[in-house]
Amino acid sequence: MTARYFATASALAFTAHAIPTYAQDANDIAQPSTGPDVAGEEVIEDVSPSAEAARSSNTIIVTATRREESIQDVPLSITAFGQEELTKKGIVGFEGIGRETPGVILNRPTQNFNNFTARGIATNGYNANLSSTVSVYIDELPVSTIGNTTVVDPNLFDVERVEFLRGPQGTLFGSGSLSGAMRIITKSPELGYFDTAALVDFGLTNDDSFRQRYNAMVNVPIGDKVAVRAVGFYRDEEGYLDNLGTGVNNSNTLIDYGGRLVLLFQPTDRLSIKLLGSYENSDPKDSSLTSPSLGEEKRISDEPDRFTGKQFIANATLEYDFDWATLTSSSTYSDFKQRFYVDLAGTFAPGSFPGAPIAFGLDADAFDNVFVQETRLASSLGGGFEFVVGGFYLNRRRDVDFLYRSNPAFLEARGLTGLPDKYFQEQYTYSISEEIAAFGELTYRFSDRFWLTGGLRYGQISAQGFTEAGGFLATGTTPFIPGVQTNYYTAALFGIPLNFDTFTPYEAVEGVKAKGSKPSYKLAASFKPTQNITTYATFATGFRAPIVNAAAGRPSVAPGGENDIIIPFGATSDDLKSYEIGAKAVWLDGRVTANLAAYYIDWSNIQVQANRVSDSVQFATNIGAATSKGIEFELGVVPATGWFLGANGAYNDAKITELTAAEAAISGAEVGHRLSAPRIQGAAFVSYTFNLADDMEATLATNAQYIGEYNSSFPNQPGNPNVRLATFGQTDAYTNVNASFGVAKGKLGAQLYVENIFDDHSITYIHPEAFLISRFGTLRPRTFGIRLSYGI
């Protein structure tokens, strides 16, 4: 391996920053050529074709526009993370991506419970019963979903690239990409080349929490037309929180394992067929949400809160080159099983009822079956015109089993008998949603310096919910009021003994089918005043799918509720218009790189969760408008051989601008209220690579990431606008500092690291709903570790 290339990889690996692509260019140019080995002969390393191509090119290629294109020429803000940076910095999931992308935060209360916010487009960090505002793709499969369901936090070992596209991406990525899209692109097999790689990570948090991560890859050619690539991983990460309710120390332990098998068949230069199967089982043993009032690193629940996921993905991708265009057909099937087990005792706060709090929880099992088909044609003629046209189809069935629980000890203590187990209510539901769309983008290059791009997507989305026959609601008789049926909540809260003797089954119910259709537009102009600078101006729109309310049409029966609103049919699609200007530049033969973007977003008809004033029934609806405006920058500098300095940052001002009195009453919002995103965030970093010997190099690196405070939700109580929301709060502003020292010789590498050097316990997330007693997310405490790698 050449010294200059290793310095590049080292700079990438040990700097925690969001512009790895530019860092690689700059270092690759700046480092000296290879020296002799101990025998006096030049070291020649066996490298794969793709690795060789990466070394010989200073151009970073992304596929954000559904075609291969230089990142410098794409008229939108993109942060791209290469595989080397991901693995050697220990980024194994969404959390690292969120901290290192300017203008983006990850609301992550616990493992498998992730919601990205980009450019301030969020009413809270939870998105309860609302679609996410940032779409997440694993290859061609959209995996983002509504806010209160689990999403597997995928392992990021042996991926080709992670791309985070900021701003609405509805033209190419559909209705869920209201404010951005993140794409995880896995590596394909390489023909004619045998390769292996491995990464092992051992860490220690506090003095008794041991972290183990194991990853391996093998690429095997079969003749010259077929190759197979296999990836396996296993994580056993002991927790660092003590659950006072269950009595378990380090309760939030994570066990995560899985793998990926990919077969590539390329019978001709024109045709390739790729078959992929992947599986991941992510099993956190408890939530990572804490209760600071109980003490540092403490939480409480009557049973472990479980947010687990098992996901199987099968994909078949065919590509055919027609000379004038490339046809791509991708068919994906996904089977996803999840558990959403949560203690809801906080619903009844102490003192609000005579017997509160009570044993009350939800065990929800969900099963998703998803099929996605996308077919597209991307031109390859060159010249003035370039186009991408295609069609998209998605069918998703989600079954959710709601089981509301007490616990045996509580039932016995309160004299509540007759239940066959701990469940007093069971309801079985499912929903079916479909999306079909046609999309296209057309670029015309007037010259090498000026080009225009226009895009359009038009489709139809439908969703319908169903309740299956069966399940039950348990009620019973009490000796105090003979012949009157009483439910669990009344008996438990008021200390009434009860024998459950009536199990009323639910009837099958077919919900109203919601349909929506809406176009997404994009128009961009790009201009290169010089060969090293690209400027652009982009207008784009975005929206989310409509939502149906289960209680649609239901009037209030509460005292004084006769004049209150009837629960509406649902929430229509929101509207978002984004205006962005930006510049991307490379100077001094790649030693200095800079990206700058400024944007203004008009967001109206906002989808929110609301409560009716008279009886606090929750429903989805639309309210008013908001604006978001800000700037983002990325900067990388190579001041001297071996050195790399960088910074990124973002400023965002997002707030409610229009709101009627009725909308304020049901949503809890206020005009002028800042949305749930930090005003300021950024990162600064430095790395230095030097020779320890002729064939061994070392790298020292440190970085600091700053995230400003932000609101957890709207400030007032939905349905009771004159009362401040009890759970409203602001996260802490915090700075996370990491450092590392690594050495490498040939394909072998070792790195010592420390994460969260100053052991910062800042609150990074606040759950906006009262049913959780432990509602706060914090940084993982200081962790020391070592990473050992081969072939990375």
From TrEMBL:
Domain TonB-dependent receptor-like beta-barrel as annotated: residue spans: 286-757
Main location: membrane
Keyword Iron assigned: yes
TonB-dependent receptor plug domain boundaries: 71-181
Signal sequence, renumbered to the chain: 1-18
Pfam families: Plug, TonB_dep_Rec_b-barrel
Membrane topology per record: Multi-pass membrane protein
Statement: the UniProt record of this protein carries the keyword DNA-binding: no
Positions of short motif TonB box: 59-65
Cell compartment(s), UniProt: Cell outer membrane
InterPro entries: Beta-barrel_TonB, Beta-barrel_TonB_sf, Plug_dom, TonB-dep_rcpt-like, TonB_box_CS
Disordered: annotated span: 280-301
UniProt keyword terms in alphabetical order: Cell outer membrane, Ion transport, Iron, Iron transport, Membrane, Receptor, Signal, TonB box, Transmembrane, Transmembrane beta strand, Transport
Family to which the UniProt record says this protein belongs: Belongs to the TonB-dependent receptor family.
UniProt protein name: TonB-dependent receptor
Organism from which the protein derives: Qipengyuania citrea
Lineage: Bacteria, Pseudomonadati, Pseudomonadota, Alphaproteobacteria, Sphingomonadales
